[in-house]
Amino acid sequence: MGEAIKQVGVIGAGTMGIGIAEVAASHGQQVVLYDAQEGFAEQAMAQLQERLKKRAFKGKISQEQITEWLARIELVDDLAHFSACDLVVEAITEDLAIKQALFKQLEIITSSLALLATNTSSISITAIAAGMQDPSRLFGLHFFNPAPVMKLVELVSGLLTDQAHIEQATAICKSWKKIPVKTQSSPGFIVNRVARAYYGEPLKMCQEQLLGHRQIDAIMSEAAGFRMGPFELMDLIGIDINYAVSQTVYQAMHNDPRFRPSLIQQEMVHANTLGRKTGQGFYSHAEGAAKPKPEYIHSDAEFDLLTVPEEMTHFSRMFCEFEHDQRKWKGDEVVVSGCRIKPTDGRLAKDLEVALNGPVCLVDLSFDYLNSQSVNVCFSPGVNQFMRNRIVALFNHMGKQVMVCPDQPAMVALRTIAMLVNEAADAVFNGVCSARDVDLAMRYGVNYPKGLLAFAEELGWSQIAQALEHLHQWFGDDRYRLSPYIRNLA
């Protein structure tokens, strides 16, 4: 079906528009590119040419490919040139009225068989299509930046979208070597909906003064396994852009507390400390500015007793595979110098100490404990300095840096990941997308280490459920209500 698309029209020559044009041209389609701002399309083409030259210099593409791709892109100054297009993708400003007016024109100009798509990241497909005579023609084709590099494309159905168009779009995306995921027109679609928790929960922890932003970033990247910490990522995206998306989703979801925007971000927008683009965000981006280091604790203590379980689990594997002369196989727990070392399940360390009648060291969640650079731990009151030193020394001998956080429900990484999993689960429960597609979306749209639902299955749904229930009880906030999807599984 993708082969039937010979000519692609792209409206808007901004970063996304020129990127989409490159994707189509590099896969053999003729492209018609239009931008209402005079001279803007020419500038975009010049920038594209420079980017392609750099890729050729690195040996990634040939000069012949550059010549072919650029020759396939035609700049036009009138929408009438879109009459022969098989697919038209709009990538203009995020303004509902402007988009509605554009698609009213396009459905008249183009063939009734032509596919009409919007690259909107936040506006309802149904709302945009409401101004059309035939709203069944419109669907979302949401690329991620940079479009030529990022694999994911969200295929978004409005309430009246003809599903035959979605199937055609799926075939086109596959012919472009993209990974298409299907979603209903719902606030934030898949990625921007689910990913809100990756920013919102760390911001809330920061506002609670649980830990500072640098420490949270280190826990989420070095210990948990995300590619970038949430505060680093917000500085890269732009605090204003991230805050605007949060506001949009929050309002569109009728002020659901799970999506509540952060007062910290609001203040930063007022202060124009927007991240890299203004030179100051959560971090200083001034020339020569040093990135603050997280606080680690170290110990040179000797440890002579390590008890490990015979059965390896997601958590215990790092202890079981650690070479240590005095290892003993016993029971189901990891024990160092009389202190149990357990993965957090949302309960406080002090409460577990009472329940287990003995000192406890809790370890925060990680996608891959064995290969993580760091661990985040907290200690129950009964863990004396002798025990602490030997636990820290053990992790140091494993090659891991150790960070310590206050004793709060679900610590840092579990708290954040549980919220992400809960939102992914709720999107599936409410028919926004399939479990397969939400996992693909988060892996390839925002580079998460694993699909969220697949990871929860591997971990055990009960750990996610317990974490959320303890958070709900602790804060009394409906933000932490457990999705029925998880409740059914746990």
Structural account:
It is a single chain. With 490 residues, the protein is α/β, with parallel strands linked by helices. It has four domains: 2-185, Rossmann fold (3-Layer(aba) Sandwich); 199-278, N-(1-d-carboxylethyl)-l-norvaline Dehydrogenase, domain 2 (Orthogonal Bundle); 306-404, Transcription Regulator spoIIAA; 413-489, N-(1-d-carboxylethyl)-l-norvaline Dehydrogenase, domain 2. It is 43% helix and 14% strand. The chain has 20 helices and 15 strands. The chain has helices spanning 15-26, 40-57, 63-71, 96-109, 125-129, 163-175, 191-194, 196-207, 213-223, 230-237, 239-252, 263-271, 317-320, 349-356, 385-397, 413-429, 435-445, 452-459, 461-475, 484-489, and strands at 7-11, 30-34, 73-76, 87-90, 115-118, 138-143, 152-157, 179-184, 306-308, 327-329, 334-336, 339-343, 360-363, 374-379, 401-404. The strands form two sheets. It has an eight-stranded mixed beta sheet, sandwiched between helices. Helix 15 (385-397) links the parallel strand 14 and strand 15 (401-404). Helix 1 crosses helix 2 (40-57), helix 8 packs antiparallel against helix 16 (413-429) and helix 18 (452-459) crosses helix 19 (461-475). The protein is elongated and about 80 Å long. It starts with 6 loop residues before the first strand and ends with a helix. The model has no long low-confidence stretch (mean pLDDT 95).
